[in-house]
Design brief:
This protein is mainly beta and 384 residues long. The protein is built from one helix and 22 strands. The protein is flat.
Length: 384
């Protein structure tokens, strides 16, 4: 009996190749499907869910992980651009995909346009008088019940020094009151130091027709008249703005006499008040420019007359205008010294820090120099 013929070895190998080829095609198709599913979310989606381990031709299923053909489909971004939150569907034998990334912070987050900016700039600076240890304010006044002694404020309930006693509610026990010796040139509120040397005594002031108190202040009316000797008097019927000029064409503080009438002066935009010796005067913070008082001492304003260069702080007076120049990082000044101490003017006309260790050598004319203990090397740098 003849045995049935078996397929040749070459035919069997051909069938195996076809079978494994089909499996390989299925795997490739599955991987392509997973890749498309992950990239279809677009820029606004969260991170695509991972396909899970079943993406490798699922060993427990003859179908090559077909249940995982749409990986992470729940991660499609919503219309508002938030990331997906539903985990991606994984194959039967795989781990669930990770959820999409959380949505980005909204417009009110830190640094956003809606974040509150810095508050408004500081208001008027605190007064530099009246507190304990500070100079006395206008009229020899101190705050919080303090006493004015030698033009300096002593705290309430503290000693006025020497044999002057304790300060109580603005008055020292043994000086400053009516008929008492002056507290080294000062008196309590309502009294003024009159006389000279050891004979000076405190007398009542500020009332109508009475002598003016310290700093030409009055409790009634305005102070009119000359300076020392008690000749300046508090007037109520003349001397104030809109009132008639007092005797000898005089007006009170903050006013000037014009054709028999007193008009306000010394304020912003007002005429300059006449000063002693023909000088012109304006109130604090104003300068007399072309016989008009205008704000001075701030950036872009006129330099104030008086001490220093008329521009406080780091500002410099440039052609009679306060300019922000001459300090490290700022433009070089063109009027006077180009840069302040510790900086020098570079070729770019910027003040650059100099003179310290590992900084450029400071330049003054043709000379180079460094801070104490440092030398300027050939590279024009300050080194130990």
């Amino acid at each position: 009996m003849q045995s049935p013929r078996l397929p040749s070895k070459s035919h069997l190998s051909e069938r195996k190749r076809l079978f494994y080829g089909a499996v390989l095609s299925a795997v490739v198709g599955l991987m392509a499907a997973v890749g498309c599913g992950g990239s279809s979310n677009g820029d606004n989606s969260g991170t695509a869910g991972k396909a899970g381990s079943s993406s490798t031709a699922g060993s427990s299923s003859s179908t090559a992980g077909s249940s995982n053909s749409t990986a992470g489909s729940g991660n499609v971004a919503g219309a508002d651009g938030t990331g997906g939150t539903t985990p991606g569907a994984a194959g039967a034998n795989g781990d669930p995909g990770t959820s999409g990334a959380p949505p980005a912070a909204g417009g009110d987050g830190a640094g956003g346009d809606n974040a509150g900016g810095a508050g408004p700039g500081p208001g008027n600076p605190p007064p530099m008088c009246g507190a304990t240890g500070q100079q006395c304010c206008t009229g020899d006044v101190c705050s919080a019940g303090g006493c004015c002694v030698n033009n300096q404020c002593v705290a309430n309930a503290a000693s006025c020094g020497g044999n002057r006693g304790m300060c109580a509610a603005g008055a020292c026990a043994n000086c400053g009151g009516n008929g008492d010796a002056c507290c080294q040139g000062n008196c309590s509120a309502g009294f003024v130091c009159a006389g000279f040397g050891g004979g000076a005594r405190c007398e009542a002031c500020g009332a109508v027709q009475g002598v003016c108190c310290a700093d030409r202040t009055c409790t009634a009316g305005t102070c009119v008249g000359g300076g020392g000797g008690g000749t300046a008097r508090c007037q109520t019927a003349c001397g104030a703005p809109t009132q008639d000029c007092c005797a000898n064409q005089q007006c009170g503080t903050g006013a000037r006499c014009v054709t028999g009438k007193c008009e306000a002066c010394g304020g912003d935009g007002q005429a300059c008040c006449g000063g002693g010796g023909g000088g012109a005067q304006c109130g604090a913070g104003f300068g007399c420019v072309a016989n008009k008082c205008e704000a001075c001492g701030t950036l872009g304003k006129a330099c104030c007359p008086g001490g220093g260069d008329g521009c406080p702080g780091a500002l410099r007076c440039e052609n009679n205008v306060c300019a922000d120049c001459g300090t490290a990082g700022k433009a070089c000044c063109t009027d006077g010294q180009a840069c302040g101490q510790g900086s020098s003017c570079s070729a770019q006309m910027i003040c650059t820090a100099c003179g310290a260790a590992n900084e450029a050598c400071c330049r003054f004319g043709n000379q180079l120099f460094c801070g104490q203990g440092l030398n300027c090397n050939q590279a024009e740098m300050c080194v130990p």
